[in-house]
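At this stage, I put together one protein's amino acid sequence and its C-alpha cells, which the following lines show:
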Amino acid sequence: MSNQSYFGEIGSAMKTLATGLKTTWREYFVKKSTEQYPENRKTTLHVSPRHRGRLVFKRVEDPEDPQAVKRGLKVGDYKCTACTMCEKACPNGTIKITAHMETNPETGKKGKKLDDYQYDLGDCMFCQLCVNACNFDAIEFTNDFEQAVFDRSKLVLHLDKEVYQGGSLPNLINGGAPLTIGKFNTKTK
C-alpha cells in the first residue's frame, strides 16, 4: 500500500500522462521514412551478409581442393557425404537425409551415397546448428530471405537436386545494395 494520499496518486498519474503525451507530440512532427520494399528492392535493399535466410549446399569450386581430390569429386559436385551429423544436430527435425551404402569401383571402398537431402524451410529455426555440426563444410546459410509461397509443401527443398544460383535480387549474396551509414534507403513523407 502506498503512503501517498488519493490526490497525490492522481497528481502522479497526471505527471506520467503528461510525459507520455509530450513524447507522442514530439514524434508526431518528426519526418517519417518508409522503406519502399517491393518496388525498389533491387536498388535500395540492403541485407546483412550474415543474415540466415535459407540453407544451401556448397559445391566444389576448386579442382585442386584436397578434400575433393581425396573423395574423387569434380567441380560442381556437392560436398555432402551423407554423414547425417546435420540431421542429428537439428533440434526440430528440419533435415531428413536418406542414403545407401555403395562400393566405389575405383578404390573398392564402401561409403555412403546420398539419395535425398530434404530440408523443410518452413520448420527451420535458422539456429545454424546444422552448419556448425557439418565436418565437411558442405552446407551454409545464405541471406536470401524472399521465400513467401502460398503452399507450405513448396518450402520443402531437396538440396541435392538443386543448384543454388542466388536469390531473386541482384548481388544479394554480398549484401545487396551498398549500405551508407547515416542515410536511409527510404522515401520520406
Remarks:
- The CA atoms of residues 34 and 187 lie 5 Å apart.
- The helical segments are 6-28, 37-44, 66-71, 85-89, 129-133.
